[in-house]
Design goal:
Peptidase S9 prolyl oligopeptidase catalytic domain-containing protein, single chain, about 15% helix, Rossmann fold, 10 helices, Xaa-Pro_dipeptidyl-ppase/CocE, AB_hydrolase_fold, 8-stranded mixed sheet
């Protein structure tokens, strides 16, 4: 029996209710969920930052008290709660005793705001100083805040070639200037003070490492009068039996002496504790041994996968996120058996876990539910949604659910991806036809695809595209060995894997290899361009603020990633220099034989616009169909609704013109150079 309401139409021509404007204007991005740092208050109010594309990408602090499901906005007009430390930010929000502290995007000063409708006043001095990842210590009447500070004044004055990172103490009232707590290393993160304010822990690392490579976990006993480390009191945690490449991150104090951290000594990012009473490396305990990564790479601050639960009856327990569950652990006993396990019904991705007032809070999502701020009563299992990232609801008949796949790739290896088949309840394709395929290369490159609902993916699948979101070798979530497979192989392993998934899906009849295209942002943009330059698998590509010239990236990018390439493309300076030429798409445009569209923000400090401009000029000169859209006021990633719309619709229109089908939506044209007259 044929459903007469379903129309037959070619893949790629399907009309979808999931429009670009529904992706941007109707939605927000949820970051930095937190609760009040005053554990005595414990009132159950939750706070978060939401990025609002409809407000030109402004970031706004919001809150919701216990007993309410109506969020309140805090950040005054003209301010935006976003930090530029490491350029990727995160950790821009701190709350203590009902007062909100946030970094402001325009001047990067920390502001204090005492009530939602009240003024916000700066508490850090003027100058090119960026602050992130604050931790409040109530050791004195006035309190103090530990921050990661990135000092760009030293660059502006000419005394240093790159910013200087350190840990500082900031006065909550702004009455005293910041004091340096720890300095001398290239990078710092995660300053965390014990509940009794007697000890401070943090993570530090040096070039050329990134925060997922070799790092050090340090702690220091503090002078109760000043809050500064006591003389000769800084300790570096040593893990017995582990080598120099050990990655430690996300520390937190479970008690005055018991320090929690994420480490990869087992081959996966697992949760451990160490007793600091008897020495810096005494009595390490694995709190939940698992052959899975329980954390993500620290591209942004404040991404802890665990939090502390302090019940009214006393005691402290650890809550650890594992997939769709929350585990209650006993940090003091060192037992590897959970005290309890709670399934967060309806969600399989849980971020920013926090506990306050008897409730567990997080930003949670699933394959069919967009990210949302949730309030979860662990014992009863009741869940309240406080804020949806997108309020529009679409019938499940328009939603394609991620299917995890493994596929063979070069040199007998195996790679991973999420496959999304075309899905639209209103359409069916002609019998025997196969859909065009969009391969997506995630950014990073040390990062991962997510199976959670993304309307940016559903935009494509609901129009009749198949989509493969590739976790190429080097991606996170599969353990340390897989994560390190991209070392010295960027531009090789990732390229091989993105091409291999096309062959795999084509052989299974799930995609049309003649209409395979690829896109990616940032590092994914580089993989996109490299696939076009060094392989002939794809018929078109779209680079979003992607890297075209590795040497330019080394010379122009910011401090955080300035030595990233050292571990991605070469073991020696000579190898790095040679690979910068051999693997840079800009030097191999003569090998590109398919159309390309590029999208770029003119204020991007991570991948400056000159990369896209050079690539566009060379592809245009070669006579290939191409387009270039430069968005004023955008940085690394697009935050304004109109630009999100243009990038989605523009890319779809570009591919449609090349593949010869008419988009169901009108008014989404872009200017394509060198387009043949018959297209």
């Amino acid at each position: 029996r044929i459903d007469m309401a379903v129309q037959e139409a070619e893949y790629g021509t399907w009309k979808s209710p999931i429009t670009a404007s529904s992706v941007s204007s109707a939605g927000v991005y949820l970051f930095d969920l937190t609760v009040d740092s005053n554990i005595e208050l414990n009132d159950g109010t939750v706070y978060w930052i939401e990025g609002r594309p409809a407000e030109a990408g402004r970031y706004v602090v919001c809150s919701c008290p216990t007993g309410s499901t109506d969020p309140v906005s805090w950040t005054p007009a003209g301010l935006s709660a976003r930090t530029r430390v490491h350029e990727y930010g995160g950790g821009a929000l701190l709350v203590y005793n009902g007062a909100v502290y946030f970094s402001n995007m325009a001047d990067q000063r920390v502001y204090r705001q005492d009530k939602p409708d009240g003024p916000a006043e700066p508490v850090t001095p003027e100058g090119e100083y960026f602050y992130a990842d604050g931790c409040y210590a109530a050791a004195t009447a006035g309190g103090r805040i530990y921050y990661v500070r990135e000092d760009h004044e030293v660059v502006r004055s000419g005394s240093r070639k790159e910013a200087e990172n350190c840990l500082v103490l900031v006065s909550p009232s702004g009455a005293q200037p910041p004091q340096v707590v720890a300095s001398g290393r290239d990078f710092y993160s995660s300053p965390r003070v014990s509940a009794d304010c007697s000890k401070l822990a943090w993570i530090q690392w040096d070039h050329p490492n990134m925060p997922w490579d070799a790092t050090q976990l340090c702690w220091a006993a503090l002078d109760p009068a000043t809050g500064l480390p006591l003389a000769n009191a800084i300790n570096t945690v040593q893990v017995p039996g582990s080598g120099p490449e050990l990655n430690l991150q996300y520390p937190a104090w479970a008690s005055a002496n018991r320090l929690l951290y994420i480490g990869d000594q087992s081959g996966y990012w697992n949760l451990y504790s160490v007793d600091t009473a008897a020495g810096a490396s005494s009595n390490h305990a694995s709190l939940y041994p698992a052959k899975q990564d329980l954390a993500s790479p620290a591209w942004m601050f404040a991404q802890h996968p665990h939090c502390l639960e302090r019940p009214a009856g006393g005691g402290t327990r650890v809550l650890l996120v594992s997939g769709d569950s929350v585990l209650r652990l006993d940090a003091e006993s060192g037992s590897a058996e959970p005290l309890a396990q709670f399934k967060v019904s309806g969600y399989n991705s849980i971020k920013y876990p926090k506990w306050s007032g008897g409730y567990f809070y997080a930003v949670a999502s699933s394959a069919v539910s967009p990210p949302a701020v949730i309030r979860y009563r662990l014992e009863s299992g009741s869940i309240e949604v406080l804020r949806l990232s997108n309020s529009l609801k679409f019938d499940v008949g328009y939603i394609s659910v991620a299917q995890p796949i493994e596929f063979p790739t070069a040199n007998g290896a195996t790679a991973h991806a999420y496959y999304y088949p075309p899905r639209n309840r209103d359409f069916v394709a002609p019998s025997g036809s196969r859909p065009p395929l969009l391969v997506r290369a995630h950014g990073g490159p040390t990062a991962a695809a997510s199976p959670s609902l993304s309307l940016k993916i559903q935009y494509w699948t609901s129009r009749g595209y198949a989509l493969a979101d590739v976790d190429y070798r080097g991606s996170t979530g599969y353990g340390t060995v897989y994560r390190n497979l991209l070392r010295y192989n960027w531009g090789i392993a990732d390229v091989d894997d993105c091409c291999a998934v096309v062959r795999y899906l084509a052989n299974k009849g799930l995609a049309d290899p003649r209409r395979a295209c690829i896109d990616g942002g940032s590092a994914g943009g580089y993989t996109t361009l490299a696939c076009l330059a060094f392989r002939d698998t794809f018929s078109a590509g779209a680079s979003h603020y992607g890297v075209a010239d590795l040497q330019l990236l080394r010379a122009d990018t910011h401090k955080f990633e300035s030595r990233y390439l050292d571990n991605l493309i070469g073991r020696t300076p000579e190898e790095v220099s040679r690979a910068c030429v051999e693997r840079s798409p800009i030097h191999h445009v003569d090998k590109i034989s398919c159309p390309l569209i590029l999208f770029q923000g003119d204020e991007d400090r991570i991948v400056p616009p000159n990369q896209a401009e050079l690539m566009f000029a060379k592809v245009r000169e070669k006579g290939l169909p191409c387009a270039y859209l430069l968005f004023p006021g955008e940085q690394h990633g697009f935050r304004k609704a109109e630009n999100i719309n243009k990038s989605l619709d523009g890319q779809f229109y570009f591919f449609a013109k090349l593949f010869g089908f008419q988009p169901a939506d009108s008014g989404i044209e872009v200017d394509i150079v060198n387009l043949p007259s018959d297209k």
